[in-house]
């Protein structure tokens, strides 16, 4: 979900370029509603790997604690 193809009603430019305050306000609202929209796929992958690593560490810690 991106706002790349949206055209601003105020400045008639692409909203993603943020040429005027209407563009920037819309872009900020989009990012607030979809906080991960501005993340690149590689950043999402890194986040996923980090979460998996955290889960593995939590599992290991649980095993050590119960052993
Ligand atoms: Zn604009």
Description:
The chain is mainly alpha-helical and 67 residues long. The protein has helices at 21-33, 41-66. It binds zinc ion (ZN). Zinc ion binds next to helix 1.
Observed structural traits:
single chain, 67 residues, mainly alpha, 0% strand, rod-shaped, binds zinc ion
Give me the count of strands. Answer: 0
Cα-to-Cα separation, first versus last residue:
46 Å
**Which small molecules are bound?**
zinc ion
Spell out the helices and strands N to C: HH
Note the overall shape.
Answer: rod-shaped
Low-confidence stretches: none
Main sheet characteristics = none
Number of helices: 2
Sheet-strand content, in percent, reads under 5%
What Rg, in angstroms, do the CA atoms define?
20 Å
Percentage of residues in helical conformation: 55-70%
Q: Look at the structure and give the mean pLDDT.
A: 87
Give the structural class.
mainly alpha
């Amino acid at each position: 979900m991106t706002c790349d193809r949206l055209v601003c009603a105020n400045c008639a430019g692409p909203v993603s370029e943020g040429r005027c305050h209407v563009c920037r306000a819309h872009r900020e609202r989009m990012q607030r509603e979809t906080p991960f929209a501005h993340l690149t796929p590689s950043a999402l992958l890194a986040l996923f790997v980090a979460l998996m690593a955290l889960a593995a560490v939590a599992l290991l810690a649980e095993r050590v604690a119960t052993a």
